[in-house]
Specification:
Blueprint lengths: L28 H12 L10 H5 L3 E8 L2 E8 L3 E2 L7 E12 L1 E5 L6 E5 L2 E9 L2 E4 L3 E8 L1 H8 L4 E4 L3 H16 L5 H20 L10 H14 L8 H7 L4 H9 L5 H18 L7 H7 L5 H12 L3 H10 L4
Length: 329
């Protein structure tokens, strides 16, 4: 792995309620504070909110915590404005990744404020919790990370850049997997997940990761799947293109997929067939089999029909008829 000290020992207590998911519906500030306090405790304190934010607080959130690491995904329907946490010395490294809207940080020692806009990330070691302001409909991820491992890489500076870097894609893929699977991990699995998360956070700062490290294979495969799912209609979609986007060799990417017993090309084909099947599920669709085959970049109609039947047990025409007659499962 890269030169980031991330080893975790049993004293971390990572087995004590390491995972949570909350706020799946829009909640008011009182509910949000109550749930945050129950799950995060005093280490990750909420700031004081301004009166207008308190009167119209509409935020969806979910996340997890492992000892001194926490990850939260937030979607704010309303704008939010805070005044920081008075007198709070937190000594944490924070990573902000904004997907939509703008997150403005204030109260920084060397900056009056800093805007993190959509498609950007901002990495900084905070000695005191900053105030912040968001625009309506802002969607962002915030990672609270351990100072000993990451502050030396920052060297007292901030780091920022595009959210589509290979290193950040791997980090976010890993945190998303943890969000979904944390409750099923063993204590050893939780410690490994913690180490990988901090390792990948360090990789964002270093601008590189160890592409032959086997522990990173799941995150690498998940990051590639995220690109596939967003770009299924791209005629250039391939193992080579994905490897180039993620700054690894095609062989490394293929090995990462092989860990889960699949191949890159098989995953792309499966997802394209699933999208085609969804179209056939649409009432009164007017797309022909040849049009579906062309849209999802199959060689020809015959190839598409064979692949569809192998996956679903019916040809596209048979499947469409069975849906119309109401006999499909």
């Amino acid at each position: 792995m890269n030169d980031v000290a991330v080893q975790v020992d049993a004293s971390l207590g990572v087995g004590s309620s390491p995972h949570f998911s909350f706020g799946t519906t829009i909640s008011g500030l009182d509910d949000f504070r109550r749930e945050w306090g129950a799950q995060f405790g005093k280490r990750f304190q909420l700031p004081a909110f301004t009166r207008d934010s308190m009167n119209d607080f509409q935020v969806r959130s979910r996340g997890f915590r492992i000892h001194d690491v926490a990850s939260v995904n937030l979607h704010g329907v309303s704008a939010v404005r805070t005044a920081g946490v008075p007198g709070c010395d937190e000594d944490l490294v924070r990573l902000y990744v904004v997907r939509r809207g703008t997150w403005t940080l204030g109260g920084l020692r060397d900056l009056d404020e800093h805007d993190v806009s959509a498609g950007q990330f901002f990495f900084r070691h905070f000695g005191q919790a900053p105030s912040f302001e968001t625009t309506p409909r802002t969607t962002a991820s915030i990672l609270y990370l351990p100072t000993p491992a990451l502050a030396p890489l920052l060297r007292g500076r901030s780091a920022s850049g595009p959210a589509d870097s290979a290193e950040l894609r791997l980090l976010l893929a890993h945190t998303n997997m943890l969000q979904e699977n944390m409750s099923g991990l063993s204590p050893v699995g939780v410690r490994t997940a913690y180490n990988v998360l901090v390792e990948l956070a360090g990789a964002v700062l270093l601008g590189r990761f160890d592409d032959v490290e086997p522990l990173l294979a799941p995150a690498l495969a998940q990051a590639a799947k995220g690109i596939v799912d967003r770009r299924l209609a791209d005629p250039e979609l391939s193992t080579t293109m994905l490897a180039r986007e993620l700054h690894v060799s095609p062989r490394t990417l293929q090995r990462a997929f092989a860990v889960a017993g699949e191949s890159v090309t098989a995953y792309i084909r499966h997802q394209r067939l699933e999208r085609a099947r969804n179209v056939l599920n649409t009432p009164f669709t007017r797309l022909s089999v040849s049009q579906l085959a062309a849209h999802w970049h199959f060689t020809d109609s015959s190839h598409f029909i064979r692949a569809f039947k192998k996956q679903y047990g019916q040809t596209p025409a048979e499947y469409a008829r069975s849906r119309r007659s109401g006999t499909a499962s």
